[in-house]
User: Fold this.
Amino acid sequence: MTSDPRAADPRTAVPLDPSLAPPGTRAFRDAGGIPADRWHADQEGETLVPTHCCFCGVQCGMYLRVDRGGKVFGVEPRNHDINRMRLCPKGINAYQQVNHPDRLTAPLLRRSRDEDFREVSWDQALDFTASEIKRIQQSYGNDAFGLLGGASLFSEKTYLVGKFARVALKSRHVDYNGRLCMVSAAGANKLAFGIDRAGNPFSDMLLTDCLLIAGSNVGECFPVMTQYVWGARDRGASLIVVDPRQTAIARTADIHVALKPGTDSAFFNSVLNVVIEEGLTDEAYLAAHTTGWEEVKAKADEYPPSRAAEICGIPAQQIVQVARAFARAPKAMAWHARGIEHHSQGVENCLSVINLCTATGHIGKPGAGYGTLTGQGNGQGGREHGQKADLLPGGRSIMNEEHRRQICEIWGIEESELPPAGTSMMEMVWQMQRREIRGLIGICNNPFVSLPNYGVVKEGYDATEFHAQFDFFLSETAANAHVVFPVTTWAEDEGVMANAEARVVKHNKAQDPPPGVRTDTWVMCELAKRLGAGDKFAFADSREVFDELRTASAGTVNDYYGITYERLEETGGIVWPCPSTDHPGTPRLFEDGKTYHPDGKIHLQVVEWHPPMDPYDDQHPMSLTTGRTVAHFLSGNQTRRLGGLVEQTPRPWAELHPSHGFRNGEPVRVVTRRGSEVFPALVTEAIRPDTVFIPYHWPVPTSANALTIDALDPRSKIPEYKVCACRIEHAETIDEVPAPPVAPGHAAYPEAQVSRTDPLPPTSPQGRGTSERG
Assistant:
């Protein structure tokens, strides 16, 4: 492969030195990014298409290799400043899904769940779906039909999901699977800062003196992001990790706080208590830039280390160590993820971290600040432009009269036609159970694996009179639908995503979709025509949708107006807000000491710890917690079909402490109030004795989410995935891992399924086991 031809041309060189960064970006390393054009391959007939990974919120740059026939056949890492030539196991294998034999290539239809699917024409599938929408809404009202989107969609498509629900369906019931990811962080950010995004770029980690990572298994969930952690360590930064498990990243920490699941806010309140008691607060910053400090200070006084140590199951002295390390550092940063967000007190957990950062003055500076790590590729962008139940494009509130007026003017509808706020994803399932929602369209989600309390989810979906699903593989949820629309992968369309830094990056089309496959945009527009709203959905492609999105976001906190496809190609990414086409973007927030509240201040919030919603008792004395593993992604509908990833991690396991007397691979039954399943034991001293961990990427009967509780945070409505009461028992036989569903006439792809029969958990390559196999 040739090198970048711009390297020898100073007129087109991209600044890589922080001192050469464009005006307004300060010390944001490599702010110019790595442009996406002018690359070619040495191999005759091969094309390299610059794009980004489809998986997590890091959004690593990559090249898809396209052969002379126009088919994607490989991948190359890209020297983008996000990932610097690095890709994780999922990124390396992602291209294999594009031309996978399991791809759906024709619409599937059945009029009853008692029937088998049959392939039909697009007109048949679209006409039947439109007729069912009309039937249900005419009989039960517009709100009897709902729409669930996804945070792995391009932002153009998430914009259309929200618009389609409110303008074509005229229903208030729209939400998305980002509700299962980081809405607790979003809620906390809005309360404290008036803006929902990370305050600092990844590169600020390279400048910090103390890095605190709470509830994030970075090494497996965001592998390429570890380069920033190691960069910080190389220049002498201390590392604090808060996690019940000694993950790979925790093993390298100066301080690993292995607290009991569900006790995070008690811990951070106590850390703040020590900071206050030892005079380590930045009183000048607090006086100038905050409200609510006296109330927060009074509440922290109720959490001395002795009390928090008992709640959290950790030494009191460790709380003191964390307080001193973080507060005394000249520059400190805190990043967190689902580990502190997936709780019935998820918003409070995030607010308690914000309180700590603010009290110590570690906000809005190079190397000092606060950020949240998005799990899905567009976890950030997916909630910004209208598919969330309570939001309109640009992060506008659907309850705000002025915001409603603005969007109605852009969409060309009367304000009276715009429905009010809807309910959250899990609440919609409960409404489906009660037959308040009788019809549903799902796009880019798989609730049969990803939602908690599977029995309730299955009952809710089975109660619907009609269900359609968009996907490029037949997921467990799609296999239960009446209509399945075969849609494109990320490599067969173009669009933008916003990564965990709020950096908007462009994905480029690498190949045409298979015959019979359409884009999500095309399907929504065709359905809108059949529902009488075609004039509001006259979009030829993603570019036209993005132009409307830019206009719809102009002047809002989430301002994309100055971001264009051309600028993204030129720069490699722009961080919003970006109000004009000559604006460089805003990689670091709050540098002037002002937030996005009208008074410009940080609104500190009082946090009170309360126990998890699933109580412990003699029958359920332990904590079950769940999470990801490096080889798989979310519901596994994509990764459980890729041979190398299945071979690396063929099945889930129950991770438990040696004190329980199990050996690696022995059957262990995990029992909660929702049911029980049997997994191979992975015995390790890297987990608390009172805690069991199960990865959640598999369906029943090996589904962690058949066991988790569907309790919700009262503000963010995020489920409490990270803690529920359980017990463990010896069992005779390990539950078998099912193969992913496939379309009629297809067989399970054998090369990707052979490893599923391995009864043993992963061994040392994943960095966990401390006992030998066998």
Observations:
- The first strand starts at residue 47 and ends at 52.
